Amino acid sequence: MGCMATAASFVLAIGTKKGLWLATSQDRQRWSFSGPHFLMSEIPSIGIDTRDGRTRIMVGVRSEHWGPTVAHSDDLGATWSEPEKGAITFPEDTGAAVERIWQIYPDAESRPGVVWAGAEPISVWKSTDGGEHFELNRGLWDHPHRSEWGAGYGGAAAHSIVVNSAGDNVHIAMSTGGVYRSLDGGTSWEPRNRGISAYFMPDPNPEFGQCVHKIAADAGVEGRLYAQNHHGVYRTDDNGENWNSIAEGLPADFGFVMLTHPRREGTAWVVPLKADGERIPPEGKLAVHRTDDAGATWKRLDSGLPTSEYNSVLRDAAAVDSAEPAGVYFGTRGGTVYASADEGETFTEVASHLPDVLCVRAALITDAALPVPETAAAHGA
Amino acid sequence: MRRCRFRKRQRPTVPDISVVLPSVLQSLAGGQSILTAPAEGPLTVGKLLETVTGDYPVLARRLRDETGALRRYVNIYVNGDEVRRLQGLETEVAAGQEVLVIQSVAGG
Q: Rounded to an integer, what distance in angstroms lies between the CA atom of residue A174 and that of residue A88?
């Protein structure tokens, strides 16, 4: 075991196709790594829960051989726990089996212990015990639209969950199916996709069926959300009733990532890819784009990024932390991870030559005397 | 030796059915490489797995999903035959037989 952290520090979790890497840093520039954890299992989802005076890292783990499960660690990966009967398992009457955990979403500070999850097959789950046991959301599971929801290339899953401050207003996004909204805390659900294109369907403006890749809520304006669609970048100001394009000013409207600032209204980040048919950074030049005015204008951010990059960035392979200024992190399918301590103005390569990066999460941790993982090479960790 | 004599006296005519685990799963079975179930009569593979993993629920979930289906890349061999070519989890296993759990060739 390494040194003991005595001040605020940052934890970075990198889920890849073949395992999990964890890192800690005091300055978001130099990182100490541990890993791989869960070698040869993919880690498509990570949740870092800093509530309740502890840092709990929850991971969706999936082995091609041994199936999916959820594990958690309260000591930065030194030890992992897995509930004996599984944290997420379908009730017997559904006749379904979990294929992959796509999302682990710790709820608001005011609702400690509440953690949401999205999974494949398309399902939403809620835990009230810090992510150790989840209950299936029956309202969505029994939704009459279910038979018409489809699968994108990666599978049919609920991959985005956004809960408002009061907890009654929940938006989810699924591929494919689009955005669904609940106004009663998740009891009932209705599609909310007006304005979002589904160009791949006979009717390009259906009530549902869109392939929304990621949604995120504005930090300052209740009812304002952003969506990165399968072609199309959108914003709603009326809680999902209407979505309007904010793609003007971006080099491409395709991509998977949508991030929002932890506190400041109007700030969001995307990582454009050229097109559905050419899933590479436009012109092979990787860049993050940030808006500070809710999508009216975009600023290209590529300082510290390579001049040539042909790997894509997947929907959950990007994250922000809660520090001031906010940190921005993302990883590529080529196994390189970048971090910015200044909201994307400059990036530093923090890891490279990892397996495909599927999920990245980062958090500011203030716990005293947290053990820091064993140091490993930051590059080629 | 005392333990063997004891078992022989208690169940002299009931040989075990053995389930051999791959090394990667043995930590989920308390470090054991072989789990055994008493064979009062023929057992189905499904019942056998249920019996030997009764004390090891995480191991059980590695082999079968929550519907009870064998995971796609988990192969179970009885007398050298993979059970999907037999009667699947309904394949019967007799006393004294050995059942092998082997992960299939998969992944990249």
A: 18
**A161 domain-assigned:** yes
Q: Residues in chain B, how many?
A: 108
- Count contacts between A and B (CB, < 8 Å): 47
Residue A380 lies in a domain: no
ipTM of the complex: 0.88
User: Are A97 and B62 within 8 A, CB to CB?
Assistant: no
Residues β-bridged to residue A179? A173
Residue among A66, A90, A96 whose CB faces B71 most closely: A66
Q: What is the pLDDT of residues B44-93, one digit of tens each?
A: 999 999 999 999 999 999 999 999 999 999 999 999 999 999 999 999 99
Structural domain contains residue A278: yes
Q: Which of residues 55-84 of A touch B (CB under 8 A)?
A: 63-67, 69, 82, 84
Any idea what the CATH number is for the domain that residue A343 is in? 2.130.10.10
Query: A204 pLDDT band (50/70/90 cuts)?
Result: confident
Q: What HEC string does A132-153 produce?
A: CCEEECHHHHCCCCHHHCCCEC
Q: What is the pLDDT of residue A92?
A: 97
Integer Cα distance of A239 and A217 in angstroms:
10
CB contact under 8 A, A65 and B57: no
| Segments forming the whole domain that contains residue A199 | 4-371
Q: Which residues 83-142 of A have a C-beta within 8 angstroms of B?
A: 84-86, 89-90, 92, 95-98
Q: What is the CATH number of domain B13-103?
A: 3.10.20.30
Comparing CB atoms, the residue among B65, B66, B73 nearest residue A65 is: B73
Measured CA distances, A287 to A206, A235, A282 (Å):
32, 21, 9
Strands (E), chain B: 16-20, 34-38, 43-44, 74-78, 81-82, 92-93, 98-103
Instruction: Nearest chain A residue to B66 by CA: give it.
Output: A97
Contacts of A277 (CB under 8 A, 6+ apart): none
The answer, for A155 touching chain B at a CB cutoff of 8 Å, is no
Chain A neighbors of B69, CB-CB under 8 A: 97
The number of folded domains in chain A is 1
Task: Compare all CA atoms of chain B with the CA of A93 and give the residue at the minimum distance.
Answer: B67
